[in-house]
Amino acid sequence: MLALEAVGALTDDEHAELVTALQRRPDLQAELEELRAVALTLADATIEPPPPTLRASVLDAINATPQHPAVAPVVSLDSRRRVPRWLAVGAAAAATVAVVAGALFIATSDEAGPGDQVAAVLEDDAAQRIAMQGQLTGLTLVYSEGEDAAVLTGEGLPLPAADRVYELWAVRGEATPERVDVFRPDRQGDVELLLTDIDPASAVWAITEEPAGGSDAPTTPIIAQTA
Question: Cβ–Cβ contacts within 10 Å for residue 61, how many?
Answer without folding.
Answer: 9
